[in-house]
Design a protein that fits this description.
- There is one protein chain.
- This protein has 2 domains: 144 residues, Serine Threonine Protein Phosphatase 5, Tetratricopeptide repeat (Alpha Horseshoe); 315 residues, Porin (Beta Barrel), CATH 2.40.160.
- The chain starts with a helix and ends with a strand.
- Helices cover 28% and strands 42% of the residues.
- The protein has a 14-stranded antiparallel beta barrel with strand order 1-2-3-4-5-6-7-8-9-10-11-12-13-14.
- The longest helix has 37 residues.
- Helix 4 packs parallel to helix 6 and helix 5 packs antiparallel against helix 6.
- It is built from 9 helices and 14 strands.
């Protein structure tokens, strides 16, 4: 009898342990998942919590943690179920309601997301939460507009001053001696350093029309026209530019894909002396290109993108400059949900230019080159309606053909730095006045191509939507 009682007690202990041990194991996984979420490792937290869902469903703390991990690791469908369980227990849990709206938005269920966002606003949330809700509501409105034809345009006009219109070096005579070993050469034509004032104007428009039979697909067409006029006997350096473009855009979830064709015409007479046959050499050129672009919204206000262009650039009176160009790059845009609406853009790019023909009769050199660069842009609203902005750029040029810009130095290498600072004054709806200054410095191992340039301008712009 005693032996039977002992056996029964042991069996009970084993059964009890088999039930309690998994519960303790589950409880230990939850703090680990919380720590992973604090470290931004949502996917790992989700992997830990998913096996526990059936046992822990209904536990408000677990459901909220699991829903957040699911949403941040790309499982919005699982997140909605978890957040709905939280709200069944506590309908006043504002954080869960906002996250439920985020999950609906990620799934493309805009009407459900808007209903939850409106409910959050009705609870009179803090200002930082209200700002987040407003951003999502604006994003929903923008997505709805994508289903309708859209026409957007602008006009702008301005004036300014340019310290070095033709981007030439200060010591031209010494630079020619270094590059070609020719002494006492004096600057003429385009080589003369000029400064002056200018006026400018631009206008553009783009039309986008969704294809109703193909969800997410739309075609677009647009164009821009720009003109700059220099004063003080510098009219030869006036420029006109016309751009036209068109193509297809496809939206798939958080991704946007674009493929298009673009054509640019650029005109500038310049002051180059006539060629040996009497032809006037100008800077006129035309560029036909094919463009590909991908953009993905990776978080509210954050967008990652990649682009590539394949351009054919042809000079109308100087075909030794003709090139085929491949341009590609990456960019990241982040709009922070903070006071002042900070915006940051980072871009990396490279172009490879391949000459179509040589520059000389002997056929020994051409204008092929590789240019690699980076750019950063930042904007901050100091006080409505004023934005301050800054742009920093750096490019490196490497000549790919020997003696293409000098008979003394084999391969030319340039490094260009530019800085832009400015203020946008949005003084009325759709109107903006921009004040900006840009300074550019080019450093080269060929002194003939070293220069500095500063441009100050003010522009008035009107947008139409």
């Amino acid at each position: 009898m005693k032996r039977a009682v002992t056996l029964l007690a042991a069996t009970g202990a084993v059964l009890a342990f088999s039930w309690v041990a998994p519960a303790f194991a589950q409880q230990s996984e939850i703090p680990r998942a919380e720590q992973l979420m604090k470290q931004g490792r949502a996917a790992e937290a989700y992997a830990l919590l998913e096996p526990l869902e059936s046992a822990q469903a209904g536990n408000i703390a677990f459901d909220y943690l699991f829903g957040t991990a699911a949403l941040d690791s790309g499982h919005p469908d699982r997140a909605t179920i978890a957040f709905e369980r939280v709200l069944l227990v506590n309908p006043n849990f504002a954080g869960a309601r906002l996250d439920l709206a985020r999950a609906y938005f990620a799934m493309g269920s805009d009407d459900l997301a808007k209903a939850e966002l409106d409910a959050v606003l009705q609870a009179n949330p803090p200002e930082n939460v209200r700002a987040v809700v407003t951003r999502y509501l604006e994003a929903i409105e923008q997505r709805k507009k994508k289903d309708q034809p859209q026409l957007a345009g602008y006009v702008e006009a301005g004036a300014g001053t340019d310290s070095n219109i033709t981007a030439v070096t200060t010591d031209f005579t010494g630079a020619v001696l270094q590059a070609y070993n020719f002494p006492n050469v004096q600057p003429t034509g385009n080589s003369v350093k000029r400064e002056g004032t200018f006026s400018q104007a631009a206008a553009g428009a783009e039309y986008t029309r969704p294809l109703q039979d193909y969800p997410g697909l739309a075609w677009y067409a647009g164009g821009d026209a720009r003109e700059r006029h220099y004063y003080s006997n510098n009219a030869a350096f006036d420029t006109q530019q016309l751009d036209v473009r068109g193509g297809l855009a496809y939206t798939l979830g958080a991704n946007l894909f674009k493929a298009g064709v673009q054509d640019q015409r650029y005109f500038q007479e310049g002051a180059a002396p006539p060629a040996a046959d009497g032809t006037q050499v100008t800077n006129d050129r035309k560029t036909l290109g094919y463009a590909l672009e991908w953009r993905r919204v990776i978080a509210p206000g954050r967008q990652l993108g990649a682009f590539a262009q394949f351009n054919e650039q042809r000079f109308l009176t100087n075909n030794a400059q003709d090139i085929d160009q491949t341009l590609y790059g990456l960019q990241l845009i982040n709009a922070f949900q903070a006071r002042g609406n900070p915006l940051v853009l980072l871009a990396l790019f490279q172009s490879r230019d391949r000459a179509l023909r040589p520059q000389n009769v002997a056929g020994t050199t051409d204008v092929s080159k590789t240019v690699t660069g980076a750019r950063a842009y930042a904007q901050y609203t100091v006080h409505e309606p004023f934005d301050v902005f800054a742009s920093l750029g750096h490019t490196e040029r490497q000549d790919d053909s020997m003696f293409s810009r000098s008979t003394v130095i084999g391969y030319g290498k340039d490094r260009t730095f530019d800085v832009t600072l400015g203020i946008n004054w949005r003084f009325a709806p759709a109107w903006m006045l921009r004040f900006q200054g840009t300074t550019t410095e080019n450093r080269s191992n060929i002194a003939l191509y070293e220069y500095s340039r500063t441009e100050l301008s003010v522009n008035l712009r009107r947008d139409f939507r």
